[in-house]
Hints:
The chain has 152 residues and is an alpha+beta fold. It is built from 5 helices and 3 strands; from the N terminus they run αβββαααα. A 3-stranded antiparallel beta sheet has the order 1-2-3, covered by helices on one side. Helix 1 packs across helix 2 (67-80) and helix 2 runs parallel beside helix 4. The longest helix is centred in the C-terminal third of the chain and has 18 residues, at 123-140. The protein is globular, with a radius of gyration of 15 Å. 33% of the residues are buried. It binds zinc ion. Zinc ion is lined by residues 38, 41, 43, 65-66, 68-69, 128.
Amino acid sequence: MSNDLLDDLYRELILDHYKQPRNNVTLPGANCAADGSNPLCGDQIQITLTLTDEKVEQIGFTGSGCAISQASASMMTEFVQGRSVIDALDGIAAFQTMMTTSAPTNAVGFDDIDALIGVSKFPARVKCASLGWKTLEQALSCLLYTSPSPRD
Ligand code: ZN
């Protein structure tokens, strides 16, 4: 596929996620949540999670801001839904690697997410694309505080 065609395909994917964000809800039964913002661009993301047995049973996000920030968060929720916390953390690391190296990740389930690779060439937009993933990392860290200790 030529680069132009690939660019068009990627642009379409990003716009599709922006216009019809997946998992665009606040989960009523969430047990973990986090808010993130990117003041440079005015992007906001709120994430709610239902975590059971260290697995992301459900994820929802709401937010406002530029197409890149909202599309990236939408793609992130599709990736994370139903995965283990370990896999979710691996996904966050893979995304960050893609943003710093501008190389495709080959990570399982990253098909749509690879559409954001072009963003890596624009440092200001990397903050937009990373916002959802950073907010996810924050939301997942609630496990550290809510997991019951066997000695308690
Ligand atoms: Zn932005």
